[in-house]
Specification:
2 copies of one chain form a homodimer. Chain A is of the alpha/beta class. Helices cover 31% and strands 23% of the residues of chain A. The longest helix of chain A is centred in the first third of the chain and has 16 residues. Chains A, B: It comes from Sinomonas flava.
Chain lengths: 551, 551
């Protein structure tokens, strides 16, 4: 052993917090409470049970909402030498089947709530149907994980096709005795987790994270979000999304408290906020749920929301500010462990008019402290990257690099090589570089509407619409148009009680944008279809628009 | 270039803060102000000037108090590919000569205040006298570094022996134009700085730090001290001591403000505190200066003091607490980049009686978040280390390991090998492991007094004495005794206005310790002789005791 080197691994964070703060509450879930000592012991127990089943490097899949067991698995699976594959809970059976087979998962943990999906996988047959299943019962009201509601759980042990399933508690009980497994790895570049992209275009890709990347990104999150021992972190962001932006490890490093949450509903979220939550992350839809809830009221303890996916609307930011909430906008992708840039606040913005400040805040920002400087480069120049001018206008591709870029796409060296062309990860996102070094996303490449030969950035139109105080959420898509090729169509969510009309909103947008960019068609709706990670499902809107257009 | 790897280097922190917060004040010094843009530009300018003079890996020595130029050199020297050697300003000429020659320094920067030392080195002759000297003028009141007080500075350009010296401003002016140097290194294990130990026993040893170690330790300091963009860090801790515990890099990572300080005097410190300082570090003597100052008053903005060298006295902790100051106790050595353990506060201690809480707080604590778990092992077991029982009583040697252990002793592979025996760095400090995992330093090995065959821990006696509310500071030494071999003698600093007598203090100690441990001799003094790093110079006290004893 070398005296002056340790392989970086976020496992160290739980080792430390369990030893230093054994009695502090680490995890809350309904009426369940786990101290840090219990959190550490449970991770060891699960790891020992797993180590007896899997080979080093094996993938272990987990299909569950934000329950303590998934949090614990973020430590236990790598502790056992495995690679955690946290699955999106909204996936259909055939998608889960694809991922289980692509990742060659050795084991699948599934929350009781999601056994229908697992049944579906079994019915589809093939290798995925043969993956042993461990059932994680809903133990929100039980004292100790895995021991609650045994009768209910027993009923689901026998699944579709008569396949035998194992109970989580039984797996744990079979854990061999013996000394604790070492909280670390030999090689810090060893894989720790595998996250599948949403695969909006084609098959999902497996994105491999390393211990080193997870460690550094966790420290970066802890720094930027300001986690410390008094932190109460509410799990509104799915842990299956980029491993919850590495926050399972970050909050644990700070020995803060994880407040788990099975589903993001206004009542449960507000109950947690009233119970002193200090931080949460999520898509803008989480911001809307909080701001627009009936229970909404001024908070006693300041709350910090870190949001990504789309710029938060000025209305939402203002409304949340009134409640005592600070909203911080970040940008990233699965391939970069979650957030890579953060819209760092500048004190000079205090003096700006509200709309100008909102415009500053809606930008994606600058590389985090553990990241490198993000760049915007000309599209299609091959391995030689050329920065676009930092004029806030010239469109280019956002490229990123450094320790928080994935190891690569799992079992897809060609896609990895393409993505890493020129030594930078190509996001596929188009944006501009502002003179102050802040990047701003202008569009995912595929979301540009070309109307009458003019490029219309749907984000630009969305920002114009959302700047109206009555608008909570918006999505703009392009639909085919005989005359113009395409034209923009808007779907708008109004605030509660608003009677905003399409005419008034049109007038508002016309003041801000060139006429050809103003959608002729505006549909009001109660909510927008979103992915579980908060991205608007524009193809669903396109289908809807086609129907509406045919009327 | 690899898309998914960056060599860890704290240079990145200045690159980022200069780009993201160009207009924020990075450095204050008297009436001088430097924004982060200026800080970054100045580091580049100095680095370019240096790069034209030195070879990669060359050592560059710096002899200065906590002025902006030394802070800038923490970035500029490694940026130029060099290794910074920050020299203790209290060293005598022959000590500086030794270090310049051992490190084979290519260049020596010297503050005008310290030119007498440099003259002394010149007079001693040898290779050290040939090292080119760059004079850094005192520019506390000037607008831009290196341009102030040119007449005064010109007068010192011609030094002893008629050797020509160069002015800092002239060196900078000679910096070649050209693109900025890259803010990083290829190999994160490359040396970044070289720090010489105080050498109380024998010659000073050169302790080599790496970019990786400095980066991780800086993030650890930022985390534990809670640095953010609103931080105002007062430079009471010498930057030449373990590179100011990596805080030049940590505060810069957080884009906080460095408040420089030429000398730690009560008035200047209190002026800074009233100007909103949020953090400072230092030996307990700094705590005493603050608590015992005439200007002392309740602070408007909470202040956090991180202290090391000796446990802070309960009286000082209480007095500082009354002013609005939180004191955090840490422990480390030059060989581990400064602090390695931190006495993490446990909320359960709130309920303890004041003296029990003080006892908890006086312990050295647990490994920091970026460190490993500190161990206390049996002494002299060779490469096979055996932990002593965690009973708070069994004495052993404190050993440490991980990324914040030095690369090694410069040009001394044998000492390095000895220090790293068994894969852990041997501190030479004796301590115990408490049941809660907190280590407590019992004695530097050489400070044990053996009286009548009994070992007396001077730290134990010191803690008993300092628990008296009238005692501000204390040092206990062993002096030769015809009957007992050695006996303990105490030097005590009382609080202002205290009329505490030796008899009363003796009685107090007798209630706490076995009779043979109670010093028969107690000398009251106004202050204790200390190293610049706050360690009591016990050999000076021994000399003093010999004189007193002879009376």
């Amino acid at each position: 052993m070398q005296a002056n080197f340790s392989a970086l691994s976020p496992l160290r964070f739980l080792e430390r917090s369990a030893a230093v703060f054994p009695d502090r509450v680490a995890i809350e879930h309904g009426s369940r409470r786990h101290t840090y000592a219990e959190f550490g012991a449970e991770a060891q127990r699960l790891a020992k049970a797993l180590a007896a089943r899997i080979q080093p490097g094996d993938r272990v899949a987990f299909l569950a909402p934000n329950v303590p067991e998934l949090l614990i698995a973020h430590f236990a699976v790598p502790l056992a030498g495995g690679v955690l594959v946290a699955l999106n809970t909204r996936l259909a059976a055939h998608e889960v089947k694809y991922i289980l087979e692509h990742s060659e998962a050795a084991l699948l943990f599934a929350d009781t709530e999601l056994l229908a999906t697992v049944d579906g996988v079994a019915q589809l047959g093939g290798p995925a149907a043969e993956v042993p299943v461990v059932v994680v019962p809903d133990t929100e009201s039980a004292g100790v994980s895995g021991t609650g509601a045994p009768e209910a759980a027993a009923a689901v042990v026998r699944g579709a096709q008569g396949r035998k399933r194992e109970l989580y508690a039984d797996l744990l009980a079979a854990a061999p005795d013996g000394p604790d497994l070492p909280w670390g790895v030999d090689d810090e570049q060893a894989p720790i987790t595998l996250n599948y992209t949403s695969g909006t275009t084609g098959k999902p890709k497996g994105v491999l994270y390393s211990h080193r990347g997870a460690y550094l990104n966790a420290l970066g999150e802890a720094h930027h979000q300001g986690f410390d021992g008094a932190t109460r972190y509410l799990w509104t962001l799915p842990m299956f999304h980029c491993n919850g932006w590495c926050t399972p490890w970050a909050v644990t490093a700070a020995a803060g408290t994880h407040v788990c949450l099975r589903a993001v509903r206004a009542e449960a979220v507000w109950d947690a906020l009233d119970d002193g939550v200090t931080h949460l992350c999520g898509a803008p839809t989480v911001c809307s749920i909080i701001a627009d809830a009936e229970q909404a009221h001024g908070l006693e303890r300041p709350l910090r929301i870190t949001t990504a996916g789309a710029p938060p609307s000025p209305t939402i930011i203002r409304r949340l500010g009134d409640l005592g909430v600070t909203v911080v906008h970040v940008y990233g992708l699965t391939e970069v462990y979650g957030p890579y840039t953060v819209c760092e606040y500048q004190s000079a913005w205090d003096a700006l008019p509200a709309d100008e400040r909102a415009a500053k805040l809606s930008r994606q920002g600058v590389g985090m402290v553990q990241a490198e400087t993000a760049r915007v480069v000309e599209v299609g120049t091959g391995p030689e990257l050329r920065d676009v001018p930092a004029d806030g206008e010239t469109l280019g591709e956002i490229v990123l690099r450094g320790n928080n870029v994935m190891l690569g796409y799992y079992r897809d060296p060609e896609a990895t090589e393409r993505a890493f062309e020129g030594g930078w990860f190509h996001t596929g996102d188009l944006g501009v570089m502002h003179p102050d070094g802040y990047i701003q996303l202008k569009d995912r490449a595929k979301d540009i509407v070309i109307s009458g030969g003019e490029n219309i950035s749907t984000i630009e139109v969305e920002q114009a619409i959302v700047s109206h105080p009555d608008v909570l959420d918006v999505a703009v898509i392009g639909v085919p148009d005989e005359r113009w090729g395409e034209r923009p169509v808007a779907f708008v969510v109004r605030g509660r009680g608003s009677e905003l009309t399409a005419e008034v909103l049109s007038g508002h947008v016309r003041e801000l944008l060139a006429g050809f960019k103003v959608p002729r068609e505006i549909h009001f709706t109660d909510q927008l279809p979103k992915t579980s990670t908060g991205k608007t499902l524009k193809h669903e809107l396109r289908a809807l628009a086609a129907v509406e257009g045919a009327r």
